Structures
1.
Amino acid sequence: MELKDSVALVTGANRGVGRAYVQALLTRGAGKVYASARNVSALTSTISLDPGRVVPVELDVTSSRQITAAAAQASDVTLLINNAGSLTFGGALDVAQDGLDRDMAVNNDGLREVTRAFAPVIAANGGGAVVNMLTLLSFVSAPGFSGYNASKAAAWSMSMSLRAYLRPKGIGVINAFPAGIDTDMLAGVDAPKDLPADVVRDVLNGVEAGDEDIYPASAAEVFEAWRANQKAVEAMFATMR
Ligand SMILES: NC(=O)c1ccc[n+]([C@@H]2O[C@H](COP(=O)([O-])OP(=O)(O)OC[C@H]3O[C@@H](n4cnc5c(N)ncnc54)[C@H](OP(=O)(O)O)[C@@H]3O)[C@@H](O)[C@H]2O)c1
């Protein structure tokens, strides 16, 4: 998909990877970028990237009312980036249930519901793409992130189902599987981290190249290791608490 002159909507665009997506889309010539966030007052620095092309949208991806309103407001979208994410720390036997529920509600249910609302919009605009921010933890678990892993595994599965339904409507579903990224999400976690701009660059290069599954920045190396020996990578991740 060509990004020049595209009209994108990015969820969770107020900080972290979401803000980096807005920046990169502007650089690549997107005609308009809807920057969505559950708290629009947090979008000031994202809007300042280009007030002429960045349009703020209130969107909590767990609110069906706000999802419907966003799809009505952003009726010219051709590219949806499901970026909003939630991570609750905790092992499988001690993570709080409300954290498990929140991660699933944002990472899986929110992705599905926002896609459901925007698929007719993208189709009506001649087709386009949905990019889902998954993670290597969709297919290999870090035990200290048990609820997050499970929600992102569910989202991976859901994304493949969505892909099959949306392809005939001219909408590509593109899954990105990053490694650790240097944002608030992993603040305090001592691990190798890619820069948000590097992750976004590789994802958007993949979108422009027509890739369906993208392993940005250092994720490419981990994915190759996983393909070669899944059990060895599982054992390596099992030490991450
Ligand atoms: N950081 C990593 O290591 C890493 C690695 C692989 C994949 N990812 C994925 O990349 C995406 C972006 O992550 P990040 O590192 O930028 O995370 P982040 O710094 O924690 O930011 C999370 C973003 O999601 C938003 N969000 C959370 N719940 C929401 C909801 N219910 N409705 C709308 N927005 C909501 C947050 O908004 P508020 O500011 O309102 O909280 C924030 O904008 C996520 O899907 C994440 O799972 C991250």
2.
Amino acid sequence: MGKAWRLRGRNGRRISGAHETDAANRLPATAASPSDPLSEPFWAAARRHELHMQKCDACGRMAYPPEVACRNCGGAGLGFTPLSGRATLHSWTVLHDPPSPGFRDRLPVILAVVELEEQARLLMSGNLVDIAADALRIGLPLEARFEDVTEDCTLVQFGPAR
Ligand SMILES: [Zn+2]
């Protein structure tokens, strides 16, 4: 793992580097922050290993990420509803440099946008796991995978449908 580093400047003064600190190395793999009230039901469901989406009481449109009002009808009654977790691959990118220190031993990281089965164009971003980058193709059947990163934070990721 990385260490704090120190250099001496031309005048002999010590320069402390904050490039890679011990604190950074203790971050969860993705440093997700499930703390805002709007998205808390999503994260609470994830901790139970369920995928829930916000759904408008008036018109039934689902939204991700959660919204304060429905973009389709303006309705403010927005509860959360469970989904199957099934999705197809919409697009992706492959990261060869870690986006944060917790990813260092997970390279390459595949960041994907998936289309959830329950609604056309209901897109969600997440990491792809259990698949090699060269096996990816648009439309690939996927399913949600849940990873308990900390006691309070479970990540929703996607892997190939079993
Ligand atoms: Zn609506």
3.
Amino acid sequence: MLFRQFFDTTSSTYTYLIANKKGAEACIIDPVLEHIENYLKAIKDLDLKLVKVIDTHVHADHVSGISKLRDKTQCIACMGKSQNASEIVSMEVSDNEKFKVGDLELRALFTPGHTDDSYCFLLNNKIFTGDTLLIGGTGRTDFQNGNAEDQYNSLFNVVLKLDDSVLVYPAHDYKGETVTTIGFERKTNPRLQVKSKQEYVDLMSSLNLPNPKLMDIVVPKNRKHGVPLEIQMQFNGINVQQLKTMMNQKKVKLIDVREDFEIQRDGLIEKSIQVPYTQIENFFQNIELSQSTDQFVLYCHSGQRTYLALQKLKNSNIYHLAGGILNWIEAGESVRRT
Ligand SMILES: [Fe+2]
């Protein structure tokens, strides 16, 4: 497996580039905006195709590079499901859901506590813990709806249930450490030596840490990485009502570009066919659009993936559902469960 750890000295943030092998599909976890060009160079040098970029949570100490990487590479921006996630990213994963990056399979673990949107991501014998578990520490719980009780549960009932040999890659380290293991942290991490949840809560409430310097600027920025509806509409976007009118009047082919786990979770619009997002250009290359009387409507989770697809496809017979299936469901329209 190809694995590269980048470090941002300003915020002491670690970013991870992961792929199965040279030439394969890749993902990046917790990118920092200022280092986008470094990541892209590594991707080019290794002949990788970036297909997913993941944030473990909304960061407070650096501006995420998630939207810049999405726009530069048309990859899928991904976060764990939470209150605001669907506005920020194009794909949400829920607790315990698995998703693919090439041949690799990552599993999302919901681990609230540092923030209410914190997730860890497990890949074979590696776990990317964000700010949930750090080397010799744990993420603070005193802002962004952090909660020490939740973090205790996330640590002791989720992360520390993993085998001692699992390698732990955090989002930060302030002392130059790069990796640890579950077993080492279980034995030596001072925050994990508590005898009860209350002892952990008391420990976390006694920290009295200053807020990150740029928090008031960075957090609002990191909540705005998504593609707003009005921008989605500019690239042959249609709303739910327009789609229903088209379905009643014309020959419409509906194409769902989401992944299998999303379709199983949220259902799909009746009569749609599934074409993976990464295959959409190939799909249309095989269709003589000028000869076709069909109209095509693409949809995804929140419209952000199909917005990217439409920028590439640029054809007046291809539309996409702005707001995705989320807006369809919110409008009270039915979905078929698979
Ligand atoms: Fe954080």
